[in-house]
Specification:
It is a multi-pass membrane protein. With about 500 residues, the protein is mainly α. About 70% of the residues lie in helices and about 0% in strands. The chain has one domain: Growth Hormone, Chain: A (Up-down Bundle), CATH 1.20.1250.20.
């Protein structure tokens, strides 16, 4: 059917520009067929935002935090756990690595479930895995039986990771208006990192330290201390399982599939199916640039943090101090991520913010590396300053990356998009963690590898062509400014259907 000239003149100007751009540009991510399928059905939609979106965000944040607290249970209490269960250092490493292994396996199936069945079903599956994983570790303190059960628990906790880390953009899209999406993404995506930081405090606070006693003599000469530590560990595991149980009940009864009315026009538009979405991401050079920059920097940084104690061993910095370095870096990154997201919601300019963060991170980690090779005088204050500045920048870039990736690849579903991003992160993390297997490699390379990853990604982001496709569609009908805050109660039970 041919559109008359008069009809075209009635078409909103911005909507017409977007449609013409999608049809006419050879470099645009959306083809004419994509426009007809995903954009043409765009009509004026009644939207609303609900106060309990903040409750949904808080509940999801708690789940994401518990996911990483469960995953990082054993590293902060390594010495005590080894003395109690008779583990080696490689066992502690394997317990941590289950998270990365299961993430790589489960990320795309989890993205499919999120795309096909929605946020409620995905969150239910994640919290069920958490409940099972944290619960099975509580069955017995007997090392003979506890060890395989703990491995099983860590695997199940790992399967919850993809939803906890990759569903943030889907949640913000379903529940939040466009002028709050980046902030909501920041809170949800950084929650898991805050969980890791908290685990460095909660574990040592609950479980007594075995100290410098010989672990080989733990059950012979120090049995009373080991028994005390065993009880502390069980109490710690009980608390984790109990919190996950409460969260499970809350998800079942208070976590709806979606709000009664969408928060924005694009929240109602059809997304590409899973197969089409993956294909689009694979052949979208702009998304590949973002995925590379995000995966390389954040993947290498997370692996670098996990080996920080080994890295600083030659400076007589113990595990606890190294843990605090990582803790404050994550906390600083979380604060900066939320602050920058608030700024981005007002001003935009995600690409510029990310580049500036990479430049500052490069400087911070370069100074850290120079300290480690004795070019810059050793100073604990400088160790703290440089690691915190670097963590502030790289962790702070995470929500900005997620939102920029979603905008650049729209209408690929948010869960598929973020799942692919986090997959890239875990691949580079595993590569970094595999390099120490090379004999006589030392530790100096770790710092320069991190510096190099930041340097490489600056020109990568300069090549990226910034475009806010989803936001532009929301702006067509003024959805970013014409929102009514609903004071309705929670949705009716029909909205809880799975």
């Amino acid at each position: 059917m041919v559109r008359e000239k008069g009809d075209r003149e009635k078409e909103p100007l911005l909507q017409r520009e977007i449609r013409d751009d999608f049809h006419g540009s050879t470099t645009a991510s959306l083809s004419s067929a994509d426009y007809d399928t995903y954009i043409k059905p765009y009509i004026q939609t009644e939207t609303a935002v609900y106060w309990y979106r903040w409750y949904i965000l808080a509940l999801f944040t708690c789940i994401a935090m518990m996911s990483n607290i469960g995953w990082n249970t054993w590293g902060p209490i390594e010495t005590s756990a080894r003395a109690t269960y008779g583990w080696s250092k490689s066992t502690i490493s394997l317990l941590a690595n289950w998270g990365a292994f299961t993430f790589v396996i489960a990320v795309f199936p989890s993205s499919y479930i999120l795309d096909r069945y929605g946020l409620r079903v995905s969150t239910l599956i994640a919290i069920t895995c958490l409940c099972f994983g944290t619960g099975v570790r509580c069955i017995t303190p007997d090392p003979k039986y506890a060890t395989p059960l703990i491995h099983c628990g860590q695997i199940m906790i790992g399967f919850a990771g993809p939803v906890a880390q990759a569903a943030a953009t889907a949640l913000s899209s379903v529940w939040f208006p466009s002028n709050q999406r980046t902030t909501a993404t920041a809170v949800a995506s950084l929650a898991s990192y805050c969980g890791t930081a908290l685990s460095f405090l909660t574990g040592p606070s609950v479980v007594e330290d075995f100290g410098d006693y010989p672990i080989s003599e733990a059950h012979s000469k120090y049995k009373a201390l080991v028994d005390k530590i065993s009880k502390d560990i069980m109490h710690y595991l009980y608390v984790q399982a109990g919190v996950c149980g409460v969260l499970f009940i809350l998800v079942v009864f208070t976590f709806p599939k979606k709000p009664p009315k969408p928060p924005s026009a694009t929240a109602t538009l059809e997304r590409m199916n899973f197969k089409e979405g993956l294909k689009k991401l694979f052949f979208n050079p702009q998304f590949q640039l973002i995925a590379f920059a995000y995966g390389l920097t954040t993947g290498v940084y997370s692996a670098w943090c996990s080996d920080l104690a080994i890295n600083l061993k030659s400076f007589n910095i113990n595990d606890k101090t190294a843990g605090f370095l990582g803790f404050w870096a994550v906390i600083a990154g979380s604060i900066s991520g939320i602050s920058l997201s608030l700024m981005a919601d007002k001003l935009g300019a995600l690409k510029l913010l990310i580049i500036l963060l990479f430049v500052v991170a490069t400087g911070g980690f370069a100074v850290f590396s120079l300290i480690c090779v004795n070019i810059v005088p050793t100073s604990m204050a400088l160790f703290y300053l440089t690691s915190v500045v670097g963590g502030l920048c790289l962790n702070g870039s995470i929500p900005l990356f997620f939102e920029l990736a979603v905008e650049s690849s729209y209408p690929v579903a948010e869960g598929i998009n973020t799942g692919a991003m986090t997959f890239s992160n875990n691949i580079y993390c595993l590569i970094f963690l595999s390099l120490p297997l090379i004999p006589n490699l030392g530790t100096a390379w770790m710092n320069w590898f991190l510096v190099g990853s930041c340097v490489v990604c600056v020109p990568t982001m300069l090549m990226f062509k910034e475009r806010y496709r989803r936001l532009e569609l929301d702006m067509v009908e003024g959805n970013t400014t014409n929102k009514n805050e609903s004071t309705n109660s929670l949705p009716s039970p029909t909205n809880y259907n799975t």
